Amino acid sequence: MRIERVLANNPGPYTGPGTNTWLLDDGTGSVVVIDPGPVDSRHATAIVELLGQRAPVAVLVTHTHPDHAPMANPLAGELGVPAVGHGPGPKFNPDVTLLDGSDMMVGRLRLEVIHTPGHSDDHLCFLAGAVAFTGDHIIGGSSVMVEDMGRYLASLRRLRGLSLDRLLPGHGEEMGQPEAVIDWYLAHRLQRHQEVYQAVAAGVGTVADVVAVVYAGVDRSLHPLATRSVLAHLRLLFEEGRIAWDGEVPVALPP
Ligand SMILES: [Zn+2]
Question: With CB atoms 3.0 to 4.6 Å apart as the test, which of 18, 63, 105, 207 could cross-link to 123 if both were Cys?
Fold first, then answer.
C-alpha cells in the first residue's frame, strides 16, 4: 500500500492549508483518488501527473461540500473511471453510491466504507486496514463544523472503537494515535456542549448572543461557521430535554 497527498490550492479560514487530495495505491499500481477538491485545472494536472502510468479505479469523495467534491465528476470523466460517494450533492453526481458497510476493491486492496454523519449527512470515512481517510469528520489541527451533534458524537465514538493506526484528514497533517485524537475531539465537543448550555442558562439571549459568548476567543470571520455548530448543540440540548425555545431565544429548563 502506498499513500500520497496532493494539496489543493484552496487555503482559507474554513479549509486551513487547503484540501488534501489523497492517492491510495494498492502497491501494484491500482489507485483511487480521494477528495479531488474544487474544480481547478492546475490541481487536476498535478493529480494526473502523479498518477503517471498507474491505473486509476475510481474518484471517491468523503462528502459533497464544495471544497471536496466538485472536481470528482470532471476528473473521473477524464480518467475514464466512476465518481463514487454516498449520494448526490451540489456539483456532484455519483456513478456509484456507497453505503455504510460497503466494500470497494482497489486492485488487491479492500477499502471499507463507514458512514459518519455529523459534519454533513452524507459523510463517509474510508478504511484501508488500520488507516482511515477521515475527510472533514476529523481534521488536522482543529475541530470541525458540525451540522448534527448527536450523530456526530456517535460517529466519533464509532471510529474510536476501531483499531486504527493513522488518520488521513481532508485538511491538515496526518495524525498518529487516533484514540488520543478522537478523545480530544469528544472532550472538546462535550465541553462546548456544556458551554452552550451554561450560556443559555445564564440568559445571554439569542443564538447570535450564545455564539458571541461561547466563541469569544475565535476570530469573528469564523462566527457564521460557529453559528451552525451552536445550532447543532442547541438542537441536541433540546432533544436531551435541557432547553426549550421561547420564540428565537433558547431557555434552559431545570435539571
Ligand atoms: Zn473540507
Answer: 63
Expressed in angstroms and rounded, the spacing between residue 19 Cα and the centre of ligand 1 is 6
Helix (H), strand (E) at residue 72:
helix 72-79
Tell me the β-bridge partners of 243.
252
Q: List, as ranges, residues with CB under 5 A of the ion ligand 1.
A: 67, 136, 170
Torsion of CA 187, 217, 252, 232, to 10 degrees: -60
**Residue 34 alpha carbon to ligand 1 centre in Å:** 12
Cβ atoms of residues 153 and 161 within 8 Å: no
User: Which parts of the chain are beta strand (E)?
Assistant: 2-7, 20-25, 30-34, 55-60, 83-85, 96-97, 103-106, 109-115, 124-128, 131-135, 166-169, 243-246, 249-252
Q: What is the pTM of this model?
A: 0.95
Q: How far is the CA of 15 from the centre of ligand 1 (A)?
A: 6
The CA 136 to ligand 1 mean position distance, Å, reads 5
Q: Which residues pair with 97 in a beta bridge?
A: 85
Distance 247 CA to ligand 1 centre (A): 33
Q: What is the DSSP string of 168-231?
A: EESSS--BS-HHHHHHHHHHHHHHHHHHHHHHHHTT--SHHHHHHHHTTTS-GGGHHHHHHHHH
Distance 38 CA to ligand 1 centre (A): 10
- Please tell me the distance from the alpha carbon of residue 170 to that of residue 8, in angstroms, as a whole number: 10
Which stretch of 47-51, 135-139, 169-173, 215-219 has the lowest confidence by average pLDDT? 215-219
Give me ligand 1 centre to Cα 135, in Å.
7
Using CB atoms within 10 Å of the CB of residue 103, give its burial: 0 to 12 exposed, 13 to 18 middle, 19+ buried. Answer: exposed
Task: Find cell 434552559 and name the residue.
Answer: 252
With a cut of 90, say whether residue 63 has pLDDT above it.
Answer: yes
